[in-house]
Amino acid sequence: MTEPITVIGTKTMINGNLEGDEDLTVEGHVEGSINLSKTLTVEVGGVVRANINVRNAIISGVLVGNVEAQEAVHITEQGRVVGDITSPRVILVDGSSFRGSIDMGDFNIETTPGEIQRSTPVTRFEEDGEEEEAPARATTRVRTVPTRRPAARPAPARSSRAPAKPAAKKAAAKRKKPPAPKVRSVGKTRGKKKR
Amino acid sequence: MTNTVIGSSIVIDGEISGEEDLVIQGTVKGRIVLKENVFVEQSGVVEADIETNNIEVSGQVTGNIVATDKVEITAGGRAIGDIKAPRILIADGAIFKGNVDMDA
């Protein structure tokens, strides 16, 4: 009993402000605020509806409120927390549930390798995207232009070749007339001649 | 150890209610409503109105006490306020100032 351990039992309800310099275990209900220089433990079955300022927090029960911890906040498998957490270390175990925001303080994003890899590709992607847009249009234009041209070229070439075989007079006549009808007539004449 | 312990460095400003034993080694201001036993230990300081079944004061209590069973102020205990309880024990060496009502 003389140990500096404070326990709020399962059947006890505290409504108000709670301050202290020792570990606090909550098995019951606390509403209001908690300011501790040591560790707050909310056990399974414990319910805390309070804004909390502690050194460490281990939440196995229910906590509704904002948490500010100097060292760490640990939400265990059975812990349920709704509120904002401000702490350099925040541990969310698989199975725990949490809704709110987490602020782990200021740290250099550049020193974190994962962040660099994430950030640089994004910028590259954006730059490439801008650059690619212009070349992509150019290439598509270039491609489309030549594909159209050769397609146009062979068609008249065939038509010119076909008439060249049967007779020079027909080819000359075809040159004067529009090319499309000439080709059709050439094909018909070929079939007639072969038959 | 299923009861509630308020440690020596703990300060509570508000209301404590419950249905289990309460041990106070720290400071409580406000109100205490219990259906069981309250122990105010030597280091305990209570500035609150207290409603409980039993209370044992070895520390310092400032406020009115209403107990359904018994109020005991031990040799090192100090209590300031009115006490209403069917049984009231004030030990030799205890300090008390206030009214006593033993009407059940």
Question: How are the SSEs ordered, and which strands pair?
Answer:
The complex is a heterodimer of chains A (195) and B (104).
Chain A: E1 5-8, E2 12-20, E3 23-26, E4 29-36, E5 39-42, E6 47-59, E7 62-64, E8 67-75, E9 80-82, E10 85-86, E11 89-92, E12 97-99, E13 102-103, H1 113-152, H2 154-164, H3 168-176, H4 179-194
Parallel strand pairs in A: 1-3, 2-4, 3-5, 4-6, 5-6, 6-7, 6-8, 7-9, 8-10, 8-11, 9-12, 10-13
Chain B: E1 4-6, E2 11-18, E3 22-24, E4 27-34, E5 37-40, E6 45-57, E7 60-62, E8 65-73, E9 78-80, E10 83-84, E11 87-90, E12 95-97, E13 100-101
Parallel strand pairs in B: 1-3, 2-4, 3-5, 4-6, 5-6, 6-7, 6-8, 7-9, 8-10, 8-11, 9-12, 10-13
Protein model, in words:
The complex is a heterodimer of chains A (195) and B (104). Chain A has 195 residues and is α/β, with parallel strands linked by helices. Helices cover 39% and strands 35% of the residues of chain A. Among the domains of chain A are: 99 residues, no CATH class; 37 residues. In chain A, helix 2 crosses helix 4. Chain A is globular. The C terminus of chain A is likely disordered. Chain B has no helices and 13 strands. Classes of the chains: A alpha/beta (195), B mainly beta (104). Chains A and B meet through strand 1 and strand 2 of A and strand 1 and strand 2 of B. Strand 2 of chain A pairs antiparallel with strand 2 of chain B.
